[in-house]
Structures are given as structure tokens and as C-alpha cells.
């Protein structure tokens, strides 16, 4: 088994913005369905959200994929299956589209701006974060205090903070986002 620094293979969020030719949305949605179904079969896929166009004259789709590791995303991106499915979209779309990749903590704090991922309402982010932080701060510090009793209090706190941030970034928040996706992003698929 290979050991590696997890920071070199972080969780990743991908946003694709693609404009669809007018009156080709139904065909695009069929191919998109196949694309999303195929992505779900790949290791590390944590979920996808699709934001449908508001402007019928310039239909623009925003598709947000989440993977548990960059290496798993790269397996999906480099797959012949994905390439074949993307080829089916070429006659239905305008241009190459826009692509944005976010990793680590930046996926927690993405600000809404032109082309950026639109986060859910703040109150929803607060509720989900609280659902995760509350148990962590009641389990990890007491456990670490007993385990690391010989160390100075400040060092124990630093270790606890690193452990909680790592758990939040790499394990817990990606799964909570997937679990609560329909509530966080009610306009998505």
C-alpha cells in the first residue's frame, strides 16, 4: 500500500459552466444524464449538482462535481467513457465552456462572483457546520487530552485543531454536503 501526503491528493470540487444552443436543451439534458450517471460509477465521486438555466435565450448550465480525491477526479477526467460522452455534447453546446477546480478549504468559503460556485444560503451552511462541529468538539478534545496528557496544553490544542480541520475538510464536510445536497441546493438535480 502506498503512503502519501494527503495534501497532494485533496478533495476537489469542479464547476463546469456550459452554454447550450437554443432549442437543444432537451438533447443536452439526455447526454448530461448519461454523463452524471457515468460519473457516479467512478471511485471517489461524492455527488453532483446541476443548476438549470434561467435565461432561455442563452441557456447556461452550471454543473458542480465533487470527488473525495484529486486522483479519483483525474481518473474520471481521463476516462475514455467521459471523452465519448463529452463528444456527444459538442454539437449541442456553444464554445468550450468554463471550468473551475477548487480543492481543500477553499471549497468551504467560495464567494459568489462571476463564474464562481454559488454557495448555499449562509444559514444552511451554519446549520450543517454546527451539526459537524458540535459532536467533534465534544469528542475529540476530551479524547486527546487523555491521550496527550504529558504534552503542554497549547500543543494539545494545536493537535486537536489540526485533527478537527482535517476531518472537516477531507472526510466529514464532503459527506455532509452530499447527504444534505437537496436541502443545500434545492434548484439542483
From TrEMBL:
Keywords: Membrane, Transmembrane, Transmembrane helix. Residues 19-84 form the ABM domain. InterPro entries: ABM_dom, ABM_predict, Dimeric_a/b-barrel. It comes from the Bacteria. It holds the Pfam family ABM. The chain crosses the membrane at residues 123-141, 153-173. This is ABM domain-containing protein.
Amino acid at each position: 500500500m502506498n503512503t502519501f501526503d494527503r495534501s497532494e491528493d485533496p478533495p476537489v470540487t469542479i464547476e463546469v459552466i456550459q452554454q447550450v444552443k437554443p432549442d437543444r436543451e432537451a438533447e443536452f439534458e439526455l447526454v448530461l444524464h448519461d454523463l452524471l450517471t457515468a460519473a457516479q460509477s467512478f471511485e471517489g465521486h461524492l455527488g453532483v449538482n446541476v443548476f438549470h438555466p434561467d435565461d432561455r435565450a442563452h441557456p447556461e448550465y452550471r454543473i458542480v462535481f465533487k470527488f473525495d480525491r484529486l486522483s479519483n477526479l483525474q481518473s474520471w477526467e481521463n476516462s475514455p467513457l467521459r471523452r465519448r460522452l463529452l463528444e456527444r455534447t459538442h454539437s449541442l453546446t456553444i464554445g468550450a465552456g468554463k471550468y473551475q477546480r477548487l480543492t481543500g478549504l477553499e471549497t468551504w468559503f467560495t464567494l459568489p462572483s462571476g463564474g464562481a460556485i454559488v454557495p448555499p444560503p449562509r444559514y444552511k451552511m451554519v446549520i450543517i457546520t454546527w451539526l459537524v462541529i458540535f459532536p467533534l468538539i465534544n469528542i475529540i478534545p476530551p479524547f486527546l487530552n487523555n491521550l496527550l496528557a504529558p504534552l503542554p496544553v497549547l500543543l494539545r490544542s494545536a493537535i486537536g485543531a489540526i485533527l478537527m480541520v482535517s476531518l472537516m475538510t477531507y472526510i466529514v464536510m464532503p459527506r455532509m454536503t452530499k447527504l444534505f445536497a437537496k436541502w443545500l441546493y434545492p434548484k439542483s438535480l
